[in-house]
Amino acid sequence: MSKEDTDFFSPNGKTVLLVEDDGTIAEEIAAELTARGFKVLHEATGNAGLEAALRLEADIMVVDRLLPGLDGLSVIETMRQQGIRMPVLVLSALSAVDDRVTGLKAGGDDYLTKPFAIEELVARIEALLRRPDDTRSTKLHLGPIDMDLIERRVWRDGREIELLPREFRLLEYLMRRPGQVLTRSMLLEDVWQYRFIPRTNLVDVHIGKLRRKIDGPGEEPLIESIRGTGFRLRVPD
Amino acid sequence: MFLTELFRTATFRITLMALAAMAGVMVMQFGLVYAQLEAVESRRSTELLKGEAELLAQMSPEHLEYVIRRRATDDLRLIINSAGLFDSGHALIAGDLRTWPKGLKADGKPHNVEIYPEEGDSYPLRVLAEKLPDGTILVLGRSFHLLSEQKLMLRHTMLVAAIPTFVFALFLGIVLSHRALSRVKEMHEAIDRIMAGDIHERLPAAKERDDLERLAGSVNRMLDRLERLMDDMREVGNDIAHDLRTPLSRMRARLERALSAGAADPAALEAAVGRAVDDLDQCLGIITALLRIAEIENSRRKAGFGQVLLADLVADVFDLYEPIAEMEDKVLVAKEGEAPCFVWGDRHLLIELLANLVDNAIKFTPEGGRITLGSQRINGAASLFVTDTGVGIAPAEREAVLSRFYRSDKSRHVPGSGLGLSLVCAIAHLHEAHVTIETGAEGIGTCFRITFPSAFLQKVEDCT
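Output (structure tokens, whole complex):
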């Protein structure tokens, strides 16, 4: 991966609390996050993780589901009972059907099953730190694109673009997260509410179709591909 | 030790029960004969006593007295064992009955009375007293001696007959249970060998003539089935190992080459690492799919179940796959069923099922081909179907296709974990639905059909 692909998000020294008992994985994650400008606090047990969370030093917590002592879900539950709203990403080696559901019910904000690509983790941490702009406004505007959410219409530089409902949904999701790297599985999960779909290049095909519609001949491409990771809607200068 | 084992066999217990029954029947039979003997003797003595009394009563008193006196040396003694002529005051006139038997009534009917002779023990006697016209009383008695002799003989006979019978039956029981025991022992040994790992061993079942052999036959058939399953599992294991080894060895070769090229070509190194990650992803994909199948197969939880409209699933999966079919120059068509089909199920799992079928169909359909998906109600049962115009599956191959890792020779070149259909089967099974493979429309290609049980449909209709 080339360097210019990675410096899209400036963490501004945000602190990630990593609660993970597997030393090797923790080391890898910490190294990668530090390289990208995050500060990392690592704890190896649930109890230590909970204490660190209660000290309010971190901006986001990444917690393994299975931990020695207090398990991941109890850490989150206790933390939430104390009124701490810090976003939490749950890591798990389990992939049971309702495992994700219990993880989210306990107060997790996102759930990632091991093994995962480190880019996937970074993209999700970023997404959690930058909660999407879910304002009630019925119109979205980004660079040359205007979107009317009531009439379900889209214009680029005043030229109306005909989109299928699924393409409109996809573009709306991108418009709400400008400049943010979105992985294929995030798109599948959030736009289509699917998990475990046999091919991930499905998303590429959908993005390709959307691209051909919104980028006219000679116009600047708006959706960038991030190699090995996913896509990003370019924020105009 | 051996004997206790012998006594604990079912055969021996049955022998003992038969023996007890036999003894019971024997006792009953002897009892009947006994009773019969007594009745016959009683009737006979009554007749004899009455007949004799009648005969004697017709004699003149002098002659009668003479006969009674002489009777002591007469043949008559054998029939009438005691006799006496008494006057009306119960005093003896003549005969060997010294005293008037206690409690005897002179009514001409036989009575059983106890006689107390002047010396010796008392003994029972069947006695008849007849009043004669001259006022004297004739008393005739017959002892039970004969009867008791007959009874004694009967008892002896019974013992003589019973003892060898019982001994013989016991012997037979021991022999039979010994045989049964040795057969069971053979089976035990066979089972021990099987448990020790010799899965090809079978129980001795011969021609399945009796219950034990039939049972052994059933166990053998069960073992055959288990052995087949184990073979299947071993095959699946081999297939997994093979499917994992291919990308791993490819990756190893690539990384080794990149390593030897070293820092001379950083771009090549980066490319090699990138491809290695892709290979690893393929391996992980296989493992994830396997775990997921196992998880769905073992899942008895239906927490995520609810009412699902099949047409919605069809629309969603169509929406997701239409662009990819278009990109690959194939036509994807969604067909509306005429009646709405609701089923009771897990929406996410059913989407996964349908997506896998459509994914497969797209993979195996040549360019310009057509894939149709839809829902249908057939004979009241809701069903999902995916039809393609691909190479088709020979009827003989259809069952094998649904097993894990099956890859038709025609499709070896198509990438994939080979687990998609296994996943489809696992999800269908969780929904108690059937997966069937038919020939596609107009005899071309394949049609996969998932038929849901009508009970689920009923459940949904009850809820609405």
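Confidence is low (pLDDT under 50) at residues 408-414 of chain B.
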